[in-house]
Amino acid sequence: MEYPVQIGLPQILLFILFVGGLVLLISSLMGLAGGRRVVEYVDEEGIRRYKRRRRHMRPGRGIGGVLLLLLAVGILWITSLTQSYLGLTGEIQVGRVHATTIEGIPHLMSLELTQYDQHGNTTADKTYLVKGDQWMLEGNMLKFPGWLNLFGLHSGYKLTRLEGRYEDVNLEAKGERSVYELNGGDGQFFKTVYKQAWSSPFVEAAYGTAVFLPADGMTYNIYASQAGLEAKPAK
Fold first, then answer.
1. What pLDDT score does 84 carry?
2. What 3-state DSSP class applies to 174?
3. pLDDT, tens digit (0-9, with 9 covering 90-100), for 129-177
4. With contact defined as beta carbons under 8 Å apart, do 139 and 209 qualify?
5. pTM of the predicted model, to two decimals?
6. 223 in the same domain as 198
7. Looking at the domain assignment, is residue 2 inside a domain?
8. Residue 213: CB partners within 8 Å, gap ≥ 6?
């Protein structure tokens, strides 16, 4: 499962701002709750003595901490709205498909599938014989809540299966099938999260997605976004 992480200067500055406000607020509260402090002084006879004085809260530090926290929360909220939108519309190329029919053999194609990681590096490049008139690439998606987008974490994706489809419904029901597992298939992790996604604070949704097209000899780039898989003709 790939988890695209995008951490830049805005996330770092927001984190520093949040921590700074939190430190100021905690420091002020500790000063108030610290009770009494020991003060050294010299009495009229020149003898060094000690006495306890009640600590006083520093209003400026407390107010400064609260203001910084409110500022950080406000900026985080605005950034959440912005990055959630970018997360929904952003795309990451995860593969490339080139499929051609085999002359003289109906309902059979030769398909080359190239897979990429989130950085655009090739992780696999393999050719398959696929029965059918169309190819279908399937995958799993994990959608994270908006507050995790603040830290640069967007949807998790994984290509899991390649198979063929027939245009004729009767062949689709009774014809020979070609199914290839990719990257270990669904895996236990996705199966567990899929069942618990509705109750998890860290996963907003877990679902399967697929894209299919005819074996027309064209090359298609496969992209993943929070909306699922999408195929676009390669330029």
1. 41
2. helix
3. 999 999 999 998 877 776 666 656 666 788 999 999 999 999 999 999 9
4. yes
5. 0.63
6. yes
7. no
8. 97, 99, 134, 135, 220, 231
